[in-house]
Protein 1
Amino acid sequence: MARPYAIEMAKLFETFEWANEADIEALRHAVRTAGLSPLRAIGSGGSLTVAHALVTFHQRHTGRMAAVSTPLEAVSEPLEPGVGTWLLSAGGTNVDVLAAVSALIQVEPRQLAVLCGGEDSPLAKLCRAHSYVDLLIFPPPSGKDGFLATNSILGFTTLLARAYAAEFGATETWKIAVADVKKAIQENSECLTAWEQATGSLWRRPTTIVLHGPSTRIGAIDLESKFIEAALGNLQIADYRNFGHGRHHWLAKHGELSSVLAFISDDDRLLAESTLALLPPHIPQARLYLPGNSTAVALLSLLAALKITGWVGAAQGIDPGSPDVPEFGRKLYKLSPPHVAASTATSWRLSSRDAAAITRKAGVSLTRLDSVRELERWRSALDSFRNRLTSTWFTGIVFDYDGTIVDTRQRFQPPSTTMAEELTRVLEAGVCVAFATGRGASVRRDLQASLPSSLWDRVLIGYYNGAEIAPLGDDEAPDGRDVPCERLTSLAKALRAQPELAHAVKQTDRPYQITLEAMQVLPESRLWDLAHQVILITGTTDVSVTRSSHSIDIVPAEISKLTVVERLHERVGDTPILTIGDRGRWPGNDFELLRGPYSLGVDEISVDPETCWNLAQSGQRGPTATLEYLRALEATAGRLRFCDGSLR
């Protein structure tokens, strides 16, 4: 694990170049999702610095609250699922991050993203078992960090800065920041030489106080971590104004043992200079001027922290990359974190599946339900629904598509091989299947590529939320013209004229559907409000508006996914049909589809205790949950039934 610190420093430029050129499409998608909600960033050791960087970028670009947690805090203080949750880990092997992710997966936050450098790490393997997790793998070209996290911190921070800049319209700002960092990061650059000379007089004293502003906080945080982990000295950090609220008293009592290091950006230069001018003259000061925009300054402050660590080590005869780790330290690192409190579901005689199902449906914890004496009502409703579901033979299934058959992150790819195999098994048993989707011909093409042509006559597709229904083999369907019908023409024109929609949204017009899809970070609620504002202003009253996993769809009021169910009934007769979708909560576009008595959700579900339950295993959703349902079905002679004991 030990490696000379100089070797780590020699690879910083290569790491920065890699992070500036790496494919970040998946990371951008995850950042886009994160931008819709508050965020919690989780890290330990060096990754805690990256967590602080993520929080800084998130708040700066989105204006939404973000907070940093250690793995222990994340496990002990769970937040409601609407808070985006990110975990950062260079190696993906330590017991703390594994325990945190295991616990968080069961909470099923709306977004759980894991940024990791170890492709085959235990962390990556755990996340792959729960496909809804945004697993973002970026192995730094420098390989595994030594004792102190170095290149992974710079690499991950650069990747995140770049992704946020790209998603929030700051591409030009990023380009300028890259140029500023490249000037400094080269070995023996004028900037590094100036920093080393400025700080050289500080290290003869045992305590260093680091003053910083908002943009340089990342560097101060990492420097504190490095000083303590490598035992280089005592280090205190404070922003310029918080220093004035009592922290200055340390210098009054221990000034002869202390020095001051100031990170100064253009934004806080006046405040920094005024603060430093008031300090006693016998206390050594070093002023590191970090030029550029806030992104450049953040990265430069981190670079300064990494370099200063090496210079201090050299001054004290310590190699920060190869410390003499005591045996008790090794044992401390390997200690197991506390187990998450055993689920109270056990004491209530609930399986983990039932506990998850009730929590999803009720929207509150089991403890809360029990305290208000509502748990038994929900348990009874679950038993009633499941008994009805598992005692019924079905002659057909209607699926939603995006988020149900294919993951929304790969929605323009065909269904997985496993999904195709399960659908084929059902069709070969003589069962009829239909898909109700907001999309058009792309779904037909993907299903034709996935299912045997001999089975196509048993498959119906309801395009554009049921506006047009045709067999899978009909290559003329759907009508893909980009001209809306007469009833939607004026509304389509008004939507295109709305300034905010015109700037931020892709509008697709079809004969019986208008689709609005955000092209940048735009909360669903905002898009929903904008669409309804135009609808109200134009006096349009005969349309239906629903949300899908990626868009808002507007169709004539009489169009519904229920039409697909009705058409399938025409084939199979008046027999039960199973419906499965991911957006069963109003105003999701599966709300009507999943109102029937035999309806299963794989993600968002309605509050109705009679139907639309999500019975997937805890920690699973989307196509993975759909596969779980399909595998639980036995098919024979044109009928389906859930196997005895399944979904319990």
Protein 2
Amino acid sequence: MVGVTQEVARRNRWALASVLLGTLVLAGCTTAQDPRRAAPGNAAACVQLETFALASRSLSLPSGGVRIIDAHFVPEGSGAEAEGGTSWPDHCRIKGHVEPVDSTAPPIRFEMAMPLAWNEKALMLAGGGFDGIIPPVDQPLFSQPSGFGPSPLERGYVTFGSDSGHEGTTVEVLTPLVDGSFARNDEAFQNYAGDALIKTREAAGAIIDAYYGRPARLTYIAGGSNGGRETLLAISQWPEAFDGALVAYPFWNHGTTTLAFGSVWRRFTDPDAYLWPAQQALLYDFVMASCDALDGISDGLVAHPSACRPDLETLACRDDTSPETCLSPAQVAAIRNFDSPTDLSWRKSGETHHPGFPVLQGADLRGPQQMGNAVPGHPIKPDMPMTAQFYDQFIRHAALRDETINPWVIDSEAPGPWAGKIGDTVDRLDVPPTSLQAFRDRGGKLILFQGLADPIVSPRSTDDYWRRLEGVIGEPDLKAFARYYLIPGYGHGAGGSNAFQPAWDQLQDLDDWVELGTAPAARTITDVTQHGQGRTRPLCEFGQWTQYQGGDPDSADSYRCAAVVGQPE
């Protein structure tokens, strides 16, 4: 995090930019024809935005200015046949660049969708992983089916997002979101670390003002995983820029968690320790058999993880057991390490541990996003664990900037001569808990949710973030502007292996809280996995677990949110 002096300077620059945006939008235009000369917010004004530009002085952080690459009008219904049945209203679609200062750095590519029937609100969409792709601006939030409420664009929100300052590739890795090669460029790395957030926010704000003739009345931000980190960073670093935030499974301790990935997967580089798909399924079934019924019902969900303590030793191979039905000593040791805290006491600042992952409490390691189908190693194999690929990219490109190094020779719990560079990189990426007082004081609201079965962003880590916020600001004051929910069976978003994938109208909850002062009440969530068939559960806050009371096992009415032992009712 930046120091106090830098923080004040950043906030002052943002405040100054906010005051001056109205004049700078015009002063920075490179065309003689101002888009405002057309009627605001229509198709003609949309096309005219192709000539819109902002000078570098219009943004509060250094840049090469802003330019529009493409502006075209999209008529209603163009997306009616899209996957999931998402339809689009009449809107202006923008593609633009925030140009770099360094000519060797890539631009920040961004996209916007600006509806004709505007509700005077805007929603910024954060990224995921190492970013490198632009979030879709015309889809429902968090990959929810369209039947659970209109997309933000359909509701009348301006939606926008960026690639955070680089374009990801799959030259080495499974997905562009895991490509870290951009990080060898200083400006590209700093944009990813956080600067792209405010640059994109300011560019979008200026374009909104130019198109509609007035700024957005309210601006929200939403993101999961690294997008959750970005969202928490945005509301703490630039609280004046956002009125509300939706955060899912936040990668808030980005660098720290990545070092934990290194500690975890380094054990599995031993082929005798790696779990092949059949053994991944064996482990998952063992944990479910041990813990599923602890909430009162066997429903495929571990809803009471604090009571879940399976004896892994009972799964260990013995002389009279078949290798297909047991785990070797090396496998047992590697899984225990996966579940255990990572010791980072070598660090001279910031986080000094990671609390481990819930692989013995219901997290599913099956599938390409999790353990994959190849032993971790160097060079990368596309079917080895995705987070092992992520660690590889972090070490070689972001921390050490040495493409040739084998990252598995480095022990992340004792990195020796590499400690300085690795520690500095972690400091630049972690977003430790703050009081969020400035965000709260201007009326900002935060809704945070986390899956209990997430093997990438551990619920223990998000719990730690929340507890530390409580310690700084106090529980009653925190609950006045923030909520934190935990969801059994939910992994790492729609891309993982989910026993329960929740759907509910998070954006409406946030908007009602900001606009009307109506805090979220009791909520029911619906499982939208193929096997879930629409079953429902209550949405329980931190400090509670979902307890079965009897009745229809697929109905939320048959459950209550019970206090975790040691927590008040």
Protein 3
Amino acid sequence: MMRQMRANTQWIMLITAFAFVGLMVFQWGMDITGRSGLSVGEIGNVNGTPLMYNEYNDTYRRLFDQVQNSQEDPVSSQQVQDIEDAAFDEVVNQILIRQELERRGIEVTNDEILSAARFSPPPEFVNSVAFQTDGIFDIQKYQNYLASPTIDDLFLLQLESYYRTVIPRSKLLRQVSSDVYISDAELWEEFLDRNEQISIRYVALDPAQRIADSVVVVTPAEVRRYYDDNREEFALSAQATVSAIVIDKTPTAADTTAMGETAARFRQEILDGADFEDFLNRPDVAIGSGDLGWFTRERMVPAFSDAAFAAETGELTEPVRTSFGYHVIEIQERAGDSIRARHILVPFARTDESDLALFTLADSLEELGESRRLDDVAEMLDLTVQTAFLNANFAFLAGAGQIGEGADWALEEALVDDVSPVFETRQAFYMLELVETREEGYSSLADATPSIERTLRAQKKLETAKSEGEELLAAIRGGESIDDVAEGRGLEMQSAGPYARMDFVPGLGRMNAAVGAGFGLNVGEISSVIEASNNAFIIELSDYFAADTTVFEEERLARRQELQGFAQQTRLQEWLEGLRDIARIVDRRAEVLTAPGEEQLPQMPLAF
């Protein structure tokens, strides 16, 4: 077990370096690995405190790795821009937090570190199979590991650094959210929302279906008045109409077949005596291949788990296809419902020949686009031209996904008939030609009239239905039954429930006045006319099911902790936003990082 834990130390600490002990996960920007990037000095400052390239670059690399590890394709240029901004914002937050810790004089003692290390292990240790007995975390196993004479000194230094950063921030969180408390009354109200239930009978007056458009008159004066009173509803953002050529980067069917054949060849070579480890550094094997450690069936995707748990110890599986690629899995050990395995992953990728053809086509597209219209380029390269409409809030191109770079070019740089350079997303290369632009403004009254008429017509229908509902109520209060009144108007009595306040109720919707109205009635009582979801309802409470106070008492403490955690997280975010609002933040990235001769931020490799 010691050998396994030492082997897993690096990835465990990388994962846990951003977690609070016993509180919540929140990224404070700690890096216990001690890695540093190339320093190019100050790239900004926060309240006079320098924001250094080293810290920004480390944060960028971490976020880049997280994005890359979450998807199969390389990180796109648009994603890189988003990661750069997220990294800068995170480092700003880190500096603000460090300033606040210093201002408040919050520190950590050696005794606090020792106590936390012994009794509050990082979450990944709590969840590790190596420290569990019968599936439950065993504190004694963890403490025995810490006391082992063979434990790595570097690991202990990293663990100390982790607590030396996390504990002060935990204290800060408690100070920031010290007044956050969920009372018993609030807990009971929340419990009722989830557990108190009713059943109802109701009449839906359904004006959209029952009242014909022809009987509802909307005058031009009413349309004009609505247009003038609700001007912002008709605001239009700047828009660009573009023609586009898209070159798909997705591996072809032939590429996928080739990857499967490669995985089968690797498996056969290992069966013939080749060393498994020798395959891990091959260029066509994904980073992340190798030891997977211990895992349960639910930790992996179904196809992977099905193959792994069906194999015998020591067996090398046939290639298993998942969304990541083809896996050759070797089962090393079994213990209860867990297995330990290693694998070789041949990721879905284009072959060298396919890649060469793809990049040659993209290069040809760029070269031809420098001097020709897009239609001519498409004809010469046997490609298809499509039309897209782009604005700042929606920049989507079929086959290429979100195209922020292309939208920026079309909306901010290009003139009509300009042809763009070749841009890239993780799905495709693409080129645009600007066809037309529209400046931001407002829809004209003529253009807005059809939608205004529909809105006003629906409002008038609803008012008519509510008036009809009042007539029905008058008949019911006069002694007629709700069933007879509904039948006399050709309306259907419907039923719903049992349901709680937070449930979606077919026919009524979710968390609206109709759903909640029944909770204010006594059994057999009939509501007033209720408006919800552009409909009108009359509701009768047919049954009531009280919430179980015993269950409330059983879950009260755990639920308070959970809800307070959410409330603390919200308070923490609001507090950080408040700090940023009053902070003096200077961003010099554009000035420093694009200077001639400076190193650009690296593209990191694909990781499984």
